[in-house]
Amino acid sequence: MVPGVTEELSGTGLADRPAVGVLAPLAARYAGGGAPVSDGIVRAMPVILRLERPPAARTPVLEAAAAAALAVCLDPRTQPGGEWHETVAIWVSTQIRKIARRARGAHWAAVQELPGVTWEVDGAQARALLPGPVDDVPRVVSRLQIGGTELEPDEPGPPPQGVPVIWVNAGLNLTVGKAAAQVGHASMLYAAAHGLADVPRFAVRDADGDRWAQLCAAVGRGEAVAVRDAGFTEVAPGTITCIATPG
What we know:
By secondary structure, the chain is α+β, with helices and mostly antiparallel strands. It has helices spanning 24-30, 58-74, 85-93, 105-111, 139-142, 176-194, 209-220; strands at 7-10, 43-50, 98-103, 116-121, 124-129, 132-133, 165-169, 203-207, 225-229, 240-245. The protein has one domain (43-147, 158-245).
């Protein structure tokens, strides 16, 4: 079993602007226009979470991960003619798997030398790297741990007005690494559905009980976008892990 996650996208009615650049295939799949293609190569985007001692708080770590993943997709180097375009476009057209790893100190400094984008939110940092085959990961990345990314729950308060919110299914008790991959899927899906050309500020919040039921209903009405997990790790296939809503 390959570590990471593959999303299936659910919901319709949100594509109010054409998707930008490499996100166009993702928007088409979201709207029911086809399934991911496969060339037999399993690809994933490494998302590196900076977890020093003591680590940053959980919420800004996830917000940084969500933004970093999307930033790679919207980077000028990823647009047609750019040096990253083919690499990212192939990945988006297949399955947008992500594998989160943790780093600190010299290991964190080392991954800054690899192609990607680092994003910071309230002192927390995450770096999303160019996706590639999971069996051909640079040594500087493969030596980083996938597990051990547990952070204590924090109390971020209500999300700010006017920013998109990525709601994490609190009932699943996802590890921070798993949640980081999921919010990265959600940010890409939200951007594809809304035709975003720039990375917005994302708020990440947990939701359970009545709030989660309301969010699922919003997905059914085409007012929000949902990420369904393929079931490689932690949850059953088809589980909704995140829902992204406008601010």
